[in-house]
Amino acid sequence: MTEISVATPQLLRRVSAGAVLDFMRASEAVTVTEVMEATGLTRATAIAVCEDLMQRGWIRELENQRAFGGYQKGRPARRFELSERAGYVLGMDVGVSKATVVVSDLRGKAIGRASQPFAEAEIPAEERIAVIDRTAMMALHGVGASPDSVLAVCAGVAAPVDRNGEVLVTQHFWGLFDVDLKAALRDRRGWTVLLENDANLAALGDRWRGAAVGVDDVVVILASERLGSGVIDGGRLLHGRGGGAGELAFLDMVEGVGDTYGIAALARTWAAVALAGKAKTSLRDFAAEGVEAEQVFAAAANGDAVARAILERLADRMARVIGAVSTIINPELVVIGGAVAKSAGVLLGPIAERLKEYTVTPARVAVSPLGDSIVTVGAVRCALDYVEKNTLDLELAVPA
Amino acid sequence: MTEISVATPQLLRRVSAGAVLDFMRASEAVTVTEVMEATGLTRATAIAVCEDLMQRGWIRELENQRAFGGYQKGRPARRFELSERAGYVLGMDVGVSKATVVVSDLRGKAIGRASQPFAEAEIPAEERIAVIDRTAMMALHGVGASPDSVLAVCAGVAAPVDRNGEVLVTQHFWGLFDVDLKAALRDRRGWTVLLENDANLAALGDRWRGAAVGVDDVVVILASERLGSGVIDGGRLLHGRGGGAGELAFLDMVEGVGDTYGIAALARTWAAVALAGKAKTSLRDFAAEGVEAEQVFAAAANGDAVARAILERLADRMARVIGAVSTIINPELVVIGGAVAKSAGVLLGPIAERLKEYTVTPARVAVSPLGDSIVTVGAVRCALDYVEKNTLDLELAVPA
DNA sequence: GAGTGTTTATTTGGAATCTAAATTTAGTTC
DNA sequence: GAACTAAATTTAGATTCCAAATAAACACTC
Questions:
Q1: Distance (Å) from the alpha carbon of A83 to chain B's nearest alpha carbon
Q2: Residues 341-370 of B with CB under 8 A from A
Q3: What is the pLDDT of residue A1?
Q4: Among the four A136, A147, A198, B92, which has the fewest Cβ within 10 Å?
């Protein structure tokens, strides 16, 4: 599509086509009459737009119209449908120890997935990129999709990313390498790569298909190993100056902790301490070392006193964090996400109870059902957002 | 202007007119050629649009073109200019004890002002409205403007206001009366009234004409009597679910304070405590009661030890607040605003020094030059934003 | 002061896009 | 097969844009 700088008559078609496309994304097969009703366009225009979009490859016309619908009379309507396989998007979760890639069609259906570990935590940048690229190619190959058909890629990383997708502050492992993933994948595959903070993607993901569906003001806390959060206000992600919005490290100043550990990390640590100290009681069921967070939750469920004390402590800590967030951000809902979320349900009650002590505007608290795929789900959503916003500027590999 | 639901040819003119208007708002008298260069439109279209806007009354054509510019050759260009007096906006600061109203032209120039005290803190709603209305009429009368020429009104109140301008949570004095200012002024005067939290308006104001010009990620703390803040991220105000975003009451959980006092309130209180306790030393210059915050700042400047200790304490407290904000919101700049701002400059150094202890992403800190007019300045900006966004849907009282 | 050059205003023609209304097409119902 | 229905297509008219040509107003030079 040609670029449009000022208001030219072509802008109209652009607007109309966007409206029709939006409607089709939200529907199954549709008739022209339905398009007219949804968009307010006249029949002539609606048909012209549909034909336009067909030629570009974004939608297709169905055969066998008779097979559809329960209508009886009159000339049978043509039916159009989003060509959900006209292209694909990739959602990536680039963690410390592994890379995960999800292939999604244009309706957001995940149709492929691949995951590959990094050999070690501190491998060189190009090797890291090679692993990521290989994982992406594996995932694409698994669904028989060509790299040319990838319309956008979104990658989540555990570093602050500003709203332009730049990693400014070097932090954690990422800064050590400063892998320029955007340039690398653009050069190798010609892909458009969007970078985003993993907690921010978790927020997008959970708002799309998690506990926060339909909620415009929500904070999603990735709470397993470290605490980080993605903040959505009025449906928009908060970034801050350098992408650092949503950091929760101010807990340090309350408890003097050196870093912001998440639920799983703390459960493990506190359990290990309790075992080492050989306090009066229990945690009998655990091996003396290598205690896993899930074991602590399980023991608490079985009535183990020490484990329950740990959960109490966890709940209080989370209530403090959520209380502070509730006060300053005032979300409607706070979601606890990440791998630990499936266990964290038992914390909801205690957290809600204590929350009132720490804020006068307590948010609802929930756990995300998305588990550890919360970041890739968000990455897919982010890539789809880009594609949906830029559809009419994108060219498909196979238009006709 | 007729409402447009779908993409009709009139939409084009709308877009073009908007672009021309935006350019004219940012310029003095302009020629058609300048409009062409700024908007990309052709001469014919630019002229048509200008004539359109003239007919609606938003711009005017200048006589005596010869008088302008340093150009020499060719046919003299017609010159157009924003009709900055085509209508007015009102910016209101509705405080606990008084109401202030500023009249502004369409270029944002304050041309009138009036202020009226409320007889007592707890007067009935209708009386409160009557005072506000009377203040507005006084301000308008002062500049010879008719109520019909008011295009929008924005009022700042010390209560949470959500992004739709609704006061949800009843809080402080406001909730006691629940004055429905929007409906009252609409019914009485036919005005469109936008409600907004006072700290949010302070943020808009300071970003417009204060210390935060050009900064997209900024937090403005109204810090005189109570602490409240307005958060702007990516140029957009944060509201949260019920308009409560920007509350800073989580300090409570650090120091066990019952409410969130601001700088002036604390300076006064701590000074009074020091005097009552008759500690070892000084504050000699103050009367034993009725200590004012400014006196504390003045005494500190003169080397008074107790006063300096109070400032140290204030700086530490502010550093904690700003530290927490810096971490979770990550703004580029934090501005201290309100009446106390002019004295608070001496705190900037100590605050910046301590800030590093409380966050790893410290923001720059500044004081606002807007003093206690920061809220009305923001209210004017907010009302202008509304007018500028809706210009083509508004009708002027005197078009031709 | 007549000729030349520059800049702007105005007019004309053409293209894209929308709406609205009339006409054709393809099927159902009786 | 005639009447009816709903969708598709065609045609006409309006709006708005761009592009190019023409006209006007002024300055500068000789």
A1: 24
A2: 357-361, 363
A3: 42
A4: A147
d(CA A388, CA A104): 14
Rounded, the Å distance between the CA of A35 and C1' of D9 is: 17
Q: What is the distance between the alpha carbons of residues B324 and A293, in angstroms, rounded to a whole number?
A: 29
Taking the CB of residue B115, how many other CB atoms lie within 10 A of it?
Answer: 15
pLDDT band at B71 (very low <50, low <70, confident <90, very high): low
Mutate to test the interface with B, among A41, A329, A356, A392 (most CBs of B within 10 A): A329
Chain A residues near residue B330 by CB distance under 8 angstroms: 160, 239-247
pLDDT tens, position by position, A259-272? 577 888 888 888 77
Q: Is the CB of B76 under 7 A from strand C?
A: yes
Instruction: Note the CA–C1' distance, B72 to C1, in angstroms.
Output: 20
Residue B355 corresponds to which tokens in the numbers above?
A: 């800030």
Residues A12-24, mean pLDDT to the nearest whole number: 94
- Answer yes or no: do B12 and A7 touch at CB < 8 A: yes
CA of B5 to C1' of D13 (A): 21
Q: Within an 8 Å CB–CB cutoff, is residue B247 touching chain A?
A: yes
Distance CA B330, CA B361 (A): 7
- Residue B346 pLDDT more than 60? yes
Q: Quick check: A277 pLDDT over 80?
A: no
- Count the neighbouring beta carbons within 10 Å of the beta carbon of residue A20: 26
The separation between CA B226 and the C-alpha centre of its own chain, rounded to angstroms, equals 17
Which band of pLDDT confidence, cut at 50, 70 and 90, is reported for residue A217? very high
Show the tokens assigned to B106: 């369409």
Q: At what angle do helices A43-56 and A32-39 cross, to 10 degrees?
A: 110
